[in-house]
Fold this protein.
Amino acid sequence: MIRNHPGEELLSSYSAGSLPLGQALCVAAHIEFCGSCCQNLQRLDKVGGELLQQLNPAKVSCDVKNAVLKEIDERLDSIESDDHDVAYDGDSSIPVCLRQFVKTSYQNLSWQRVARSIHNIELFRDGESAKIELLKIKPSGSATTHSHLGDEYTVILEGSFSDEDGLYQQGDFLVRNSSDVHTPVVTLDRDCICLAVSEAPLQFTGFFKRLLNPFIRRRYLQN
């Protein structure tokens, strides 16, 4: 059962198309798991459409109109010839929004080890610093107690983990910021795979672990 959802403001921004790409990807993945947020999004889309209909149309020149129509035609031609029309033959449980990155299954990805029980694969960067990645943590594995130097958005894709605030399962959507300190621990039954968007590196809190923070920041900026 999904207990954690994006807030109304995030959903509204997603509906309006104004979210940064990484955040939008997290919301899209959550919506594929969550029927209630899907219904809320449809409601917001309807409200947005009604508001657009109430706006007075602006006058534009024929040159601008023709340029827009040409751009639309070119994009439609591109979509029609795109290989994405080919049926997806990978794991059907993978959200549609992630299938361009996960061609067959999570297990077949080129995971990179970042800690004893944690692997990741970076998907892309959004802007100068926001990092979008998949994380895989082994059963009973944990992350060192840490805080965040910026906002972090996480969607649970498979498995589950817990921290000081509760248990999170498939589809749960989490937002952490600089006021949060937690120690995620994966449950015993299976790997936990997450989609994560971080706008800044983690900040370890233990005395000895804090010595690693400069290295973590450099690694975050270099990757």
Q: What stands out?
A: The chain has five helices and eleven strands. The CA atoms of residues 151 and 177 lie 4 Å apart.
